[in-house]
Amino acid sequence: MLHILRPIVRFALWVFFRNTDIRGRERVPRNRPLIFVANHPNVMLDGLLLATAVAGDVPRFLGKSTLFKNPLSALFLRSVGVIPVSRPQDSGSRMSRNEEMLLAASQVLASGRSLALFPEGISHPARQVRALKPGAARIALRVEDEAEIGVQILPVGLTYSAPDTFRSEVSIHFGDPIDVRDFLSAYRDNHRQGALELTALVHQRLVSLTWHVENPELETAIQDLAAIYTESVARDIPDTAALSSRLGADQELIQAVHHFSRTDPELVHSFAHRLRVHHRKLRRFSLDPRAVSTGMSGRLRHVCLGLLLAPLALYAFANNALPYFLPRLFVRPFRQTREMIGTIKLSVGSLTFPLWYTTVAIVVYLLAGKVPALLYCLTAPLSGFFALWYLERVLARIPLWQSMVLPRRRNHYLKRLTDERAALIRDLDEVKERYLASRTSATGEV
Fold first, then answer.
1. Are 97 and 65 contacting, i.e. CB atoms less than 8 angstroms apart?
2. 146-188 confidence digits (pLDDT tens)
3. Distance between CA atoms of 238 and 342, rounded to whole angstroms?
4. Which domains does the chain have, with CATH numbers?
5. Strand ranges for 108-211 from DSSP E
6. What contacts 386, CB < 8 A, 6 or more positions away?
7. N or C terminus of the chain: which is more exposed, having fewer CB within 10 Å?
8. pLDDT for 213-236, tens place per residue?
9. What global pTM score does this model have?
10. Closest Cα partner for 257 from 248, 267, 247?
């Protein structure tokens, strides 16, 4: 069943995310018992991304026992190899069943296959790797202690640009494997202490592979800063097979903000306010940050292209509007649990688009016959991709209403926003030099 589902899920994720950046996959050992551990910001999407990004066989996932309460979902989860885990915080959970989980997990590893789990124990939208549960370490150490088969733990960092947004971006960074045998001696002396030491190293590796904002109060300021300054910092960071320059830039920004929050909190407060006001203005006019820095020639080119393709775009939008907006109705009850939104959008959208295309094709067949219905079936999915391209490459870059409809006063307002952004970047460049100088001074470099 997994062999059938995997390409379907890959296609769904390819549509859902504008870009999926996978780094360090060559670090994954072959023919070794592995436990993949990842941070958990996005409920089901995390598991789907990890399952499709791993080369070779799909790892068997450990999932909370509450997911198995519904008979239909339990049937599906068991058919794809998910192993239930009872947690103390889950109502009605039977902790005695974890012996069955440990036995099943041990059998998977002993057969040379891999496991996957999310040791934070809960999905959350915060840009932070929370304290890890020691379950992964305990499983690995127990199996290695009993069988000595060379179990390794491989950390995986999942980083979403906007975890609740359709057509956002995600990066998947595979880290270096951790050899469990290095912790066997400590484990044999004291099971609990050995597991805690291994868990601490796993946490450290995960932090290096994704966002990690220690102070939650700084998260919004860092997010606003990254939106306009990450690309500037990324130009000075090498892009490698192991670490993207963008994630490296984001991590540098996080460290810099934490540094100045300790040494110059007024500076952080001042920039946080300026960035918040700037982004509020952008949201007020539904402007993509990239549009603010687009030159006049770029605006004219996009306007001409937009007008030329407008008739085709109108058909594409009309054909895809209902299945595109319908998932938003299902999202409304989960506005306070952002980590659920992406999962719901993908799940509902994966159903509504095929159902809508099938329904319209049947109507066309009944009204116009076989050939028009066949033509519609061939062009309907293409119209959806064209609508996405038109939104992302034309309207998002420089909205037509901005150049053609709004009065001159609004165009002047756009110029002010462009100047405001340029001033922010100039001031941030100066602060960056201060930060680099402080790092050089701290390390004693010449």
1. yes
2. 989 999 999 999 999 988 899 999 999 999 999 999 999 999 9
3. 31
4. 2-212 (3.40.1130.10), 217-284+417-443 (no CATH), 289-405 (no CATH)
5. 114-117, 152-160, 169-174, 178-179
6. 312, 313, 316
7. C
8. 999 999 999 999 999 999 999 999
9. 0.90
10. 267
